Amino acid sequence: MDACDVLIVGGGPAGSSCARALRLAGLQVMILDKASFPRDKVCAGWITPQVVEELQIDIRDYARGRVLQPITAFTAGLGQHAPRSVHYGSAVSYGIRRCEFDHYLLARSGAQLRLGETWKGMRQQDGRWLINDHISAALVIGAGGHFCPVARFLGAQLGKDERAIAAQEVEFEMNEDQAARCGVSAEQPELYFSEDLKGYGWCFRKGNFLNVGLGREGNHRLSEHVQAFWRRLQAQGKVPVDASAHFKGHAYLLYSYARRPVLADGVMIIGDAAGLAYTQSGEGIRPAIESGLLAAQVIVDAAGDYRRERLAGYEDKLLERFGPREGSALLKQIPTGVRLSLARHLMQTRWFTRRVLLDRWFLHTHQAALRI
Ligand SMILES: Cc1cc2nc3c(=O)[nH]c(=O)nc-3n(C[C@H](O)[C@H](O)[C@H](O)COP(=O)(O)OP(=O)(O)OC[C@H]3O[C@@H](n4cnc5c(N)ncnc54)[C@H](O)[C@@H]3O)c2cc1C
């Protein structure tokens, strides 16, 4: 029998960040993940400087033998309109590869690792949880991403009645010839919003790796949108014509639309499993990490008493950090057609692209790193 204070199901950014904070506070922590690491995760791999600060990552150390691509500018376009370039002059974000980033965070967490083992079930035994019939824990944290089994255990209707973002992505290393011909600058990711504003595609170069993807509300004709986007990038010389497009798909919830339970006696849910990705950009790594750190703080304060009422501060902290789940009531009163044409007009102005779309929605510069 294995025993720990806290068992975390899922070793992605949410799980490993929470584990590290709990370990630093002296708790016995175990991470269970069905994958063996390093493992890949469908993701563009873009992180903001606040993530680096929150996790106290020494970027020089991280960059040794790993991809860390500084981003100093963006190209942003809408439909067939001419895209705009916005230059910042210094690094405002970074590109990472999830197979490297997640492995680094997991190894650094200091938790005991049970990798390659799937969560199969859990039940109460002598006031503790017994997971997979061989791990005993006082508290279980669900950090298993969008399809987290612990979230399902708490009653989340995964995939049913949930307004999810469906996305497809491909990441590959270009050979020397492809890299020389690639028309995308590594410091300047490109974002292309669809005319109906239901999603966007990206083309993001990280050193010699190229990451191309597209995410939309719902999965109606997603593959068609992805293929059309890929062909357009090829025609523009941004993607090598001889590169093959083995896209992988994944879904996730945006904060405003997610309604999953995040708490029960002896159970907490963090990261994508709780539906926390920023509504406008889909950035999910930062909220996943922040929820892990907030959960850890509540757990430490609970001092071994993990009844729901002792953990309730977690819900308050999420609300305080991310705001109410509902979107603006005022905006909802404006008819969709008017909202769309206003948004299309704004997105073609330099001011809106820089100050609102990039600074506020994508870089979240108005919200400083979480300090705990
Ligand atoms: C196409 C795409 C592009 C994205 N691009 C970005 C981006 O550029 N920047 C950004 O900030 N966010 C991005 N996101 C969102 C981001 O990927 C997620 O928000 C983030 O990975 C959430 O982290 P997490 O730790 O909650 O979950 P995950 O990273 O999904 O980790 C969950 C872990 O749980 C494990 N697990 C799952 N089920 C079980 C089980 N039954 N038993 C045991 N283990 C299990 C998995 O193996 C996995 O390791 C993107 C998402 C998509 C789909």
Explain this structure to me?
This protein is of the alpha/beta class and 372 residues long. The chain contains 13 helices and 18 strands. It has helices at 13-24, 49-54, 59-63, 98-108, 149-153, 176-181, 222-235, 285-302, 308-311, 313-322, 329-332, 336-347, 350-362; strands at 2-9, 29-33, 46-47, 69-71, 73-78, 84-87, 93-95, 112-115, 122-125, 128-131, 135-142, 164-173, 190-193, 199-206, 209-217, 248-253, 263-264, 267-269. Strands 1, 2, 8, 9, 10, 11, 17 and 18 form an 8-stranded mixed sheet that branches. Strands 6-5-13-14-15-12-16 form a 7-stranded mixed sheet, with helices on both faces. A 3-stranded antiparallel sheet has the order 3-7-4. Strand 14 and strand 15 form a beta hairpin. Helix 1 packs parallel to helix 4 (98-108) and helix 1 packs parallel to helix 8 (285-302). The two termini are 34 Å apart. The mean pLDDT is 94. It binds flavin-adenine dinucleotide. Residues 9-15, 32-35, 41-46, 118-119, 143-145, 147, 149, 167, 169, 213, 215, 250, 252, 271-273, 277, 282-286, 288 line the site of flavin-adenine dinucleotide.
